[in-house]
Amino acid sequence: MTVKLRFFASLREKLGEAGTLQLPEGSTVAAAREALMARDDRHAQALARGRAVRSALNQKMAPETAVLAEGDELAFFPPVTGG
């Protein structure tokens, strides 16, 4: 399945504004984060475990256990953003 990605605040500065990610059906937010960290060092550092990173699924806050579906929008951002 394909999930739309968005990054905000400092994550957008490091990783860019948007993109897509291919994942197996039934994947979770945590699995998406792991797949992104495996892309390259830049993603691994920005999304590393232990870093305060929040996620939103279809514009609603989502836990890492949330299950993704085809066409979902998944956003990652630091806990405090301005704007």
UniProtKB/TrEMBL annotation:
Pfam families: ThiS (PF02597)
Classification via InterPro entries: Beta-grasp_dom_sf, MOCS2A, Mopterin_synth/thiamin_S_b, ThiS/MoaD-like
Gene3D superfamilies in UniProt: 3.10.20.30
Record key words, sorted: Nucleotide-binding
PANTHER family given in the database record: MOLYBDOPTERIN SYNTHASE SULFUR CARRIER SUBUNIT
Family: Belongs to the MoaD family.
Designated name of the protein: Molybdopterin synthase sulfur carrier subunit
Originating gene: moaD
